Amino acid sequence: MSLSAMLELLIRGFRISVSIFCLTLIFSLPLGLLVSFGASSSSALIRLPIKAYISVMRGTPLMLQLMVVYFGPYYLFGLTLFSSYRFTAAIIGFVVNYAAYFAEIYRGGMQAIPIGQYEAAQALGYTRSQTYVRIVLPQMIKTVLPSLTNEVITLVKDTSLASVLAVSEMFSSARKIASAQTTMLPFAFAGLLYYIFSFISEKIMKYFEKSLNYYN
Questions:
Q1: Where are the domains of the chain?
Q2: Are 119 and 51 contacting, i.e. CB atoms less than 8 angstroms apart?
Q3: Per-residue model confidence (pLDDT) at position 103
Q4: Among 29, 50, 53, 22, which residue's Cα sits nearest to residue 141?
Q5: pLDDT for 121-173, tens place per residue?
Q6: Which CATH superfamily is domain 3-115+144-211 in?
């Protein structure tokens, strides 16, 4: 296989990795916020199941969760799904996993806000929803961005786990080429692309951190 053909296959897999990354963030970031609200609910009927969900997601391997999402419909309900479900299952698995981590990050950020902020909002006549939207969320986002950056970088590398479902992302493509050509070169190229992807993601997140650092 020529070098150009090898790079073409890797770039094709890289596009799948980027798709998994972007779709996971698009769905898991807002879902994590909703989960964090549920985990802080005064109702035990809402709070306890959500805390159990967070515990399971954080306490079991992501690879196992991906396999459950993909094979679960067949073994539990006897449903035969199309081969295209592999990608959908990967997105579902990543979203529900990362939403749990983001929820804990959000919850920690909200708990870091002084109680006086809530009391001041109440004194000004703000409703509970107005307090969260206008006062709590802007401060919380500023506080949690460094932790979110770490998770985003981890997600870049975790996209390789989609290979367990035979999704042809970059690592899967590199492994196939290396096996067929008996060379480590595809892994070297894949590692370089992962690093560049992580570097760019980190710089983007650092830009947001700097833009929200009002006092410097």
A1: 3-115+144-211
A2: no
A3: 94
A4: 29
A5: 788 788 877 787 788 888 888 888 889 999 999 999 999 999 998 888 888 88
A6: MetI-like (1.10.3720.10)
- Residues 62 and 161 sit within 8 Å (Cβ to Cβ): yes
Q: Is the dihedral of CA 14, 187, 180, 159 positive or negative?
A: negative
Q: What is the mean pLDDT of the chain?
A: 88
Q: How far apart are CA 46 and CA 37, in angstroms?
A: 10
CA–CA dist 147, 144 (Å, integer): 5
pLDDT digits (tens, 9 = 90+) for 62-101: 999 999 999 988 888 877 777 778 899 999 999 999 999 9
